[in-house]
Amino acid sequence: MAGAEQGPQQRSEQQPEQQPELGPQPSADRVRTGPANALTDVEGLRVGHATRTGGGALTGTTVVLAPEGGAVTAVDVRGGGPGTRETDALDPRTLVERVEAVVLTGGSAFGLDAASGVVAWLEEQGRGFRVGGPGRVVPVVPAAALFDLGRGGDWHARPDHELGHRAVAAAAASAPGGSVEQGCVGAGTGAVAGGLKGGIGTASTVLGTGVTVAALVAVNASGSAVDPATGALWGARPGWAGEFGLDGSPLPADAVRRGAQRLAAAAGAAPFHTTLAVVATDAGLTRAQAHKLAGTAHDGMARALRPVHLLSDGDTVFAMATGRRPLLPAHAEADADPVFAVHRTAGALDAVLAAGADTLTRAILHAMLAARTVRTPGGDFPCYRDAYGLDLPGGSVAG
Questions:
Q1: Any signal peptide, and if so, which residues (predicted)?
Q2: Residue ranges per structural domain of the chain
Q3: pLDDT by residue (tens digit) across 343-379?
Q4: Which CATH number is associated with domain 8-387?
């Protein structure tokens, strides 16, 4: 990793011309990825990273910035050791319906201070829950932290107010709809999953109705993303091979053996982790529906990481809905028999829920493939590619 602290990590404005079509899905309609295959394919959402490395630091913060006016947001916490802030405000029974930003950060409970920097930036912009005249706003900024303390060598190197401010500023300065940097960046800088280097990953799905569902994840799990018997990533599916540069062929026995040895060597590491994710859609959802999306997205986490939701994990998924598109096309609502309208709506929501789980699985795969081996005074963290001797295209390098 680089020896000096890095500035905010911004997304490139360049977008892929075409993304691969995915394999069979629960819906009868074929689906495709969005232009960037990233969370930013949900119109209005922007992502900013701020990364701190060198001098004993290996940590960072990632901010998902909603369009002005906010997004309907919910959360589902399944892990036994969560570190969160303002998540009670997302209960459907509470007052604030929309939030301006969600924060994912390293640093465990200490790193939640990064959210204060995001709150300060939003107040500077006059964005937040209005409680009076112009400028009188209270930004509600939900946040969740993962455990990466000491992985750079310095236990006291953590995200703070400044890093949060820089991350949200990077999000605001980024181009709409651009690509999102993946791998060892932002909240994923110090992430580790089952002894292998984790990091940031993202993916998107466009349904046949035109609704977009996308995910962003910081993979930092007590469990593993890899089947030790085969060396294959748990979440990989045959229909998705082209998206990840995988051909579905079994790994050579020597590679599987070496990979298993590296995993075993890393097994003595501290068991504290936590995987964090944001699943988003441009469909109009109620807060209760968004809560359901956050919950079913955990299924996608469980397909790609085994085991999950342990006492040593604080696994948390946020769901955001911008409401730029109706859940059901207008003609479908008009043509629906009133008796069966509830079933039509449920079917449309089910498609979003299923896509949310699958898209989070794919985002986790991208995170593992984009990660790079990191060596610091705090430890050696081999990436999946190096542990199994894979030479695959794509991925991004950080630090």
A1: none
A2: 8-387
A3: 888 999 999 999 999 999 999 999 999 999 999 999 9
A4: 3.60.70.12
